[in-house]
Every structure is written in C-alpha cells, then in structure tokens.
Model the fold of this input.
Amino acid sequence: MTESHIIAALKEIVGADKVSTEQADRICYSYDATQQKFLPDVVVHPTTTEQISRIMRLANAEKTPVFPRGAGSGFSGGSLPTKGGIVLTTEQMDQILEIDEENLVAVVQPGVVTEQFQQAVEKVGLFYPPDPASLKFSTLGGNVAECAGGPRCVKYGVTKDYILGLEVVTPTGDVITTGGPTMKGVVGYDLTKLMCGSEGTLGIMTKIVIKLLPLPEGKKTMLVLFDSIDGAAQAVSAIVRNKIIPTTLEFMDGRTLDCVRQATSLQVPEAARAVLIIEVDGDLEFLDKQARKIAEIIQPLGVVETRIAETHEESEEIWQIRRSVSASLRKVNPDKFNEDICVPRSKVPEMIRKIDVIAETYSIPIVNFGHAGDGNIHVNIMIDKQVPGELEKAEKAIEEVFKGALSLGGTMSGEHGVGIAKAAYIPLEITPETALYMKTIKKALDPNNILNPGKIFLD
Done:
C-alpha cells in the first residue's frame, strides 16, 4: 500500500484534484483489454513534463512502482498495475501542439486519440497511416509504446516508421529528447527506435514528433471470396508479385465466415471458405484500373465472388463484414484469448492448418483473421471459463500456436506486445543471451525497477 506521505507529495506535485485513491477510480484503471484486473493504490493525472519528472523522482526515492497508462486498450496487459503502486495516466496530456504543413511534421502530446489526430491532419490534406483497430479510443503515446500496426501497415509501415523524435521522462526522472523534426539524423544511438515498442518500461513519452504524408486522393475497396485459404494466400503473393502494394490486405478464414453468417444478415455464399478485403489508394485516375488488374490477377485462384465498391457507402458495407467479426465471436463461446502471431505471408495457409490441428487436438474453437499482406494472424481461442479444464486447454493451445509460428520463421506477437500475457513464453523466441542484453538496458536505465515492473520479462 502506498504510504500517506507519498499521496500527499503527489497532490503537492499535480494538485489534489488530479490524485485519487477512491475505490471507484482505482477500479477504472485496474484493467485493460485482457480483462485481467490489478488494483492500483493511487491514480495520478499529470498535465506537464515537469510533473511527470517530479513523480518519477519521488517514486525512486520511495521505491514505489509507477505504471504508465494511455487508454488501457492493450491486449497484453502492458499497462496493468500488477504491483499496486501508482498508475500515471497521460490521458489529460491531449494537445496537438503543431501541424507543420511545409515540413510534413506534427508534434503531439501522448494523450491525443489516434483517430482524432488522423482527422486533424486530414483536414489540411495530410495523412497519418498507422490505424490500429482501437484507433477510436487508443492514444498516440500507447501506440508508440506498443509500436501499433493495423491494416494499412502492409503498404505504409507501423508506428515506429513515423516517429521522428520524442521527449521522454526517464525512469529516474530526467528529461531527455531523442531525434527531432528532420527526416535524417544519425548523431548518437537511435533512442527513438529504442523507445518505440518498449511498452512503458524504459521511459514515459511526453511529446511525440510525427512524420506525415500527403493525403491520397482516393481509395477503392474490394471484397473477394475464395473457396480456400490457400487461394487467398496465393492471391496476396500474386498481387505483390505484379508490383501492386495495396493499402490493406485483410483476410478471414472459414471459421470466421461461419461466425459472420450466424451473427449477421450479411450475405456470404456457402462455398466461400476465405475472404480478402483489398483496398488500394492513390490518384483517382489509377484506382479503377488498379482494381480491375487485381481482379484479373486473382481470378484463377479459386475466386467465388468479387465485389468492388463504387461508392463510399458500398465501401463501408464491405468493411462492416470485417467489423462484425469481434462481436460475432461471442456466439461461439463467451471468453476469448486474442493472440497476434506473425509469419512470412507465404506461410499463412500452413499456419492456419497448424491451428486447425491444435483446435482439434484440444477440442477448442479457434477463429482466425488478420492482416494477410504482412502475415499477421489474429488467433482467437474461444472458451467458456466456467467449464472445468477449459482454461488449462486454452493455455496449452496458446503455447502450441506460438511454437507453430516460430517453427515457420515467425514471431509470437506482431503488434500487441508482450506485457504480462506473453512474458512466460519469451524463452521460446528470444535466446538467453539476447534476453540478458535487453535486461541490461532495463537495469541501466531503471536501476530501482520502478517503471512498469514485471512487464516483458518476469521478475
């Protein structure tokens, strides 16, 4: 339990109205999308870099853990206050400080909501591509901490590809800057990239310098139904081989389609066993030509039906199929483990077959969808925790899924991170020597293990 004098000191730093020990408030900051819960002792809402610096100096002096938090939308438990202590939420640091239209750069605070930032830059004809599924409520600070991805990353890359510089409060309370607003810069180590994906264990970001692109003139959306997952995967390779890089290449397997059929009124032919949602963007004069060429390329690969949106409304109808998936999964079983393995895109069919075997072995429904363009598969293991033995079977299945991905040259996590959810499985992917190197960095920057302890590596 955090001592009363620490609570008093926090109130002195940020103001009494921005510190809460009330049970209801603490519960609100005790969980994330994993639905695991750990109650913090106190919740603090700083609004300046200086306040965060002082909080970290206090925490080090008192050996009190601090858990930085954005919107709490993560799927790996990265923001969970597993040791009580202080939840430091950056949600009130939510200002877009600058949009530089000449140099295609923006500067923001970490609490800016991703979609709101995208809308702000699009109003002036600019574009921020990373689009995690949580973009309507996730914050840019959390996106950087997890190196968030999304459907558009097949063409445009992930969050780290757009972060030019940072202002960071270190675990010991110092304030540093990394990188800057220039497109080039090789002075010293690349601390910006080190912070991207560090899951709040190496520093708390207080300003983010973001690279922007010109906004594409238009986009074209296609829904293609295949008679097998192999055909869909071959289509992805064929499209890329023909020198077309779509904005998105989303896939759903047969089990996912069964869920969609049961939960919605959307018309999906029974012969369809896989779906690709393909979107291209760019100059309007090339979009129709590009869509027609894609349709020609993939037609021999077991296509059951192709729908090409001609209007914004038709495009939204196509994306509604993808958006309906998460809600439809609850029709299978009430509890979901959402993993996000990534394999070379040509290995997606083989990985799906491995998952089918795992599902049969443990008698558990497993539903797969994700980003076919980069091999990122969202593996949804559906169980009912109230049924004895189901949780144990799910845990065994998860480990088998991870081993299957690694055997194909893949990774356990493409975009969700490690947090606490995957920490126990780290030795499957990272060698002891590599793990020691990472732990050495953490120890050097956070000697008292104050900042987000217990994440990525088990203590």
About this structure: Residues 334-414 form a domain with the Alpha-Beta Plaits fold (CATH 3.30.70.2740).
